[in-house]
């Protein structure tokens, strides 16, 4: 049974705080294992990759091949149904259109002191994309990671993906073909992330690594943050649905289950102002679970991490939602705009009754790689900016340095940095 | 003696690669110490802070006081010279003006499928600023960190700074007063970073932590990345100066030394196309060093990490500079614009002979917190964006979900996620 809270209860503040503070992230101490893997790949390169792949994925890269060939990707795309191909192409086109609007503007101008000041954005040279094998091998994730890099103007995109027992998901290859990825390595885990960061004889190093993965992959990215750029520290997926009694309980139940079915650690939380509606949604969830092919995961996740929070009204709900800073937030009410105006922290917000979160997972356009575990307090979904960097620039002439140089000399001297002061003072003579 | 390389030499490629790959970052294994400090502060809060402060900074917080009072800051500002106050105020005004232009634009619109799509930026609730004590207690750094947070709209800014033996730099307090900081805690080191991230009874937690520090502080920020947002993984400062023979060797020598004097691990590199000029700069550096109050640091840094690279021409230099991806790049040539067009990776670029890097450290306006250690390949200087996050949003009506919903259903089914499919399909009935 999921947690059930009522804001009218005396113990509500403590119980809600416990919900906010509950950690759903793997407490597994993988950091030592990962650190050893990174060191070994850095020292031994491809030999370490081959060894780890034999051990964890049970195939010999020197037999099965290190790379997926373009011909395999073309064949995979030709092998899927027309409907699916159309769906992938619609998704790619819409994601591209949304991300095009994220491209930052350069600036350049001369101010009243005669100082020229500006900023110039440019793409990183190379991006590495991790694509999981197994349960979480999602072509939609591939598109969501590659397209922002493409829009940013990244010229080289290298993908890594584990192929357990040599098998690879053809839908992922079809998506790779649509996204135009030409470099795909059949390696996974922390070792693949290390190869992308440090480079090996076969795999040239990249500048930024993005993409979802298990606890080892996430920890590898965290440890290599600074050697390369990374997208974010990602945790289990989550949704908060704010819904009034005018919604169809079946719809809201499906929305909650669309997170629960991801992983046993996923979290789905309903906020509602109506007890009977809360009961109806809870009943609909129980009815729907057995019909899902993902029922085992969904049932575990809903029972362990699901919650229904009964509030007096939605003005009371919104500050509570902000404390959760959810990855996904559905506002299924008559006037979602009014509630959205009160939201400070959320990764992505789905406005109104006809906007289920899943439409954003696939085809709406915004990125589905979003901050989890309350990180929407300080971070944003994946974007074009994650694949770009900004160079500031300035230029002074004789008049400009006379205008602002003396202040620099005064501050440098006060900070005890005489060469700083001299480099300006010499030009003022 | 600094390294001297000539691109005409047969061993140049290998020698330059060695220069690029040389690590100047502390190899000291502080990660275990830091991890223990973080755990203890998380568990014991203020008691741990008091204990570490007694041990490392040699004063008792319960006697000397936990916080710096607003009165102390006002007194510090009143105690400095008018020139210095004017310089700080000019710096603050110019830094504010530059960062105002970084404020991102929200987006909101309806596309041809009838889908409303947008993105809304908002500030984090609270930012924590680390200000070092001792050698690197720079009021300029304080301004460079606080002002972007203020411009972003952060409502709470909490500063931490160690006060070894109870002493605090009055110039830092004066800058804090100018920047309007009202919350200053007299704690430093990894323990202060932990307090900002986790919160204690006295210090409420923040969402983003920025500011320079020693190896312990840097490692604490790295380990807490994900619990909070951080500015960047920072390493020793560095400058590359590209200069032709028309420059005054004394000016260029001072520019090189303005990095060398920061820290023994700092790096200054000159690229020039003229042997005699290279010799003249080298001689000027040797002449200037003994005159500096920072001569011991500058001499060590220049000898250990300095380099002069002789190139045939500057078109040859620019790809080499890009491999270094320097924090600071001075282009002291007749047509700096032409060289700047070739730069792909640099934190900040200083165009022309009258633009010494030090002017950017203090009063020009762009941020002086910049990526080091080749990280300009993938990251940017501190900006308003580091204190903001973006929430994407979308809204579909019945017509829009009929336009794009079927593709979402197809993809969800292909990915084996039936609740995702159901949440859309139910709304299509």
Automatic annotation (TrEMBL), chains A, B:
GO molecular function: histidinol dehydrogenase activity; NAD binding; zinc ion binding
Residue sites binding NAD(+) per the record: 130, 191, 214
Pathway: Amino-acid biosynthesis; L-histidine biosynthesis; L-histidine from 5-phospho-alpha-D-ribose 1-diphosphate: step 9/9
Role played: Catalyzes the sequential NAD-dependent oxidations of L-histidinol to L-histidinaldehyde and then to L-histidine.
Family indicated by similarity: Belongs to the histidinol dehydrogenase family.
Chain sites annotated for binding Zn(2+): 259, 262, 361, 420
Keyword entries, A-Z: Amino-acid biosynthesis, Histidine biosynthesis, Metal-binding, NAD, Oxidoreductase, Zinc
UniProt xrefs under CDD domains: Histidinol_dh (cd06572)
NCBIfam families: hisD
Cofactor: how bound: Binds 1 zinc ion per subunit.
Required cofactor names: Zn(2+)
TM spans (from-to): none
Top-level EC class as recorded in UniProt: oxidoreductase
The UniProt record lists the keyword DNA-binding: no
GO annotation, cellular component aspect: cytosol
Residues of the active site: 327-328
Annotated EC: 1.1.1.23
Protein name per its UniProtKB record: Histidinol dehydrogenase
Binding site residues for substrate: 237, 259, 262, 328, 361, 415, 420
HAMAP family: HisD
Catalytic activity field: L-histidinol + 2 NAD(+) + H2O = L-histidine + 2 NADH + 3 H(+)
Pfam families in UniProt: Histidinol_dh
A Gene Ontology biological process term: L-histidine biosynthetic process
InterPro entries, per database record: Ald_DH/histidinol_DH, Histidinol_DH_CS, Histidinol_DH_monofunct, Hstdl_DH
């Amino acid at each position: 049974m999921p947690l059930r809270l009522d804001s009218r209860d005396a113990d509500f503040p403590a119980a809600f705080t416990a919900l906010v503070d509950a950690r759903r992230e793997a407490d597994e101490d993988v950091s030592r294992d990962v650190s050893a893997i990174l060191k070994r790949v850095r020292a031994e390169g491809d030999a370490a990759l081959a060894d780890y792949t034999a051990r964890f994925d049970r195939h010999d890269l020197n037999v099965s091949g290190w790379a997926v060939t373009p011909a395999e990707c073309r064949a995979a795309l030709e092998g899927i149904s027309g409907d699916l191909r159309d769906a992938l192409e619609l998704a790619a086109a819409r994601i591209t259109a949304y991300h095009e609007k994220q491209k930052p503007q350069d600036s350049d101008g001369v101010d009243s002191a005669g100082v020229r000041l500006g900023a110039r954005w440019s793409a990183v040279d190379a991006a590495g994309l991790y694509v999981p094998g197994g349960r979480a091998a999602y072509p939609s994730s591939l598109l969501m990671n590659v397209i922002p890099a493409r829009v940013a103007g990244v010229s080289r995109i290298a993908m890594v993906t584990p192929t357990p027992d040599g098998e690879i998901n053809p839908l992922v290859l079809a998506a790779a073909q649509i996204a135009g990825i030409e470099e795909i390595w059949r390696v996974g885990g922390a070792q693949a992330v290390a190869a992308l960061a440090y480079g090996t004889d076969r795999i040239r190093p990249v500048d930024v690594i993005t993409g979802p993965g298990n606890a080892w992959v996430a920890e590898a990215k965290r440890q290599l943050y600074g050697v390369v750029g990374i997208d974010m520290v990602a945790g289990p997926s989550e949704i908060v649905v704010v819904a009034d009694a005018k919604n169809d309980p079946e719809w809201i139940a499906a929305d909650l289950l669309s997170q629960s079915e991801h992983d046993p650690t996923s979290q789905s939380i309903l906020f509602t102002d109506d007890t009977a509606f809360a009961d109806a949604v809870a009943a609909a969830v129980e009815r729907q679970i057995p019909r899902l092919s993902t029922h085992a995961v969904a049932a575990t996740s809903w029972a362990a991490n699901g919650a229904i929070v009964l509030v007096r009204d939605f003005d009371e709900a919104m500050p509570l939602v902000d404390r959760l800073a959810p990855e996904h937030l559905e506002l299924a009410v008559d006037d979602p705009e009014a509630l959205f105006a009160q939201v400070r922290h959320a990764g992505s917000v789905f406005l109104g009754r006809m906007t289920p979160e899943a439409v954003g997972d696939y085809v709406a356009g915004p990125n589905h790689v979003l901050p989890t575990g309350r990180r929407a307090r300080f971070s944003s979904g994946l974007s074009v900016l994650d694949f770009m960097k900004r160079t500031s620039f300035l230029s002074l002439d004789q008049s400009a340095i006379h205008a602002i140089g003396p202040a620099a000399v005064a501050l440098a001297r006060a900070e005890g940095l005489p060469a700083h002061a001299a480099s300006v003072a010499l030009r003022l003579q």
